[in-house]
Automatic annotation (TrEMBL):
Source species, domain of life: Bacteria
Source species: Solirubrobacter ginsenosidimutans
Protein known as: CAP domain-containing protein
Keywords: Signal
Any Pfam family hit: CAP
Keyword Nucleotide-binding: no
Signal is among the record's keywords: yes
Length: 151
């Protein structure tokens, strides 16, 4: 094999690695608990015949930042959800569920939301097609789920 052929092969491998790596990085942007919350939310939606929510990195950044702020200030609240979320994504409609608990358990978080009429309404809205989940802390866990329409 000539030097030129080896260079081309190496270049091809590097190019493929560059194309594949970002998709793996974005898929791994959620930690295990955040990913479990999204799975549990999608399972709940499926039981009502609703489409799955697609994970959005912009919404995940918005949710993570909000959870970190709630933890830092030791206050739980929504604030101006629309304005805050739209700094990260373009969308017509937004919704948000938040939770605070000792420990961080995906099933408990989703069950809390399912047992609260306003939270359940957001979780089960057909208008929402994208989601981002962020949490801060493990012992004292603050969780934010930001929802957005398709556009």
């Amino acid at each position: 094999m000539s030097v030129t052929s080896v260079r081309r092969a190496v270049l091809a491998v590097l190019l493929i690695a560059c194309v594949v790596a970002p998709s793996r990085a974005s898929a791994a942007s959620h930690d295990a608990t955040e990913a479990s919350i999204i799975r549990a939310l999608n399972n709940a939606r499926a039981s009502y015949g609703l489409p799955r929510l697609r994970s959005s990195s912009g919404l995940a950044r918005a949710a993570g930042a909000h959870s970190a702020t709630m933890r830092r200030t030791n206050r739980i609240g929504h604030g101006d959800v629309g304005r805050r979320v739209r700094r990260y994504v373009r969308t017509r409609k937004v919704g948000e569920n938040i939770a605070w608990m000792d420990g961080c358990n995906a099933t408990r978080v989703v069950n809390l939301w399912l047992n609260s009429a306003p939270h359940r309404k957001i979780m089960l809205s057909r208008s929402f097609r994208r989601i981002g989940v962020g949490r801060s802390g493990s012992r004292r866990c603050f969780v934010t789920a930001d929802f957005a329409s398709a556009h």
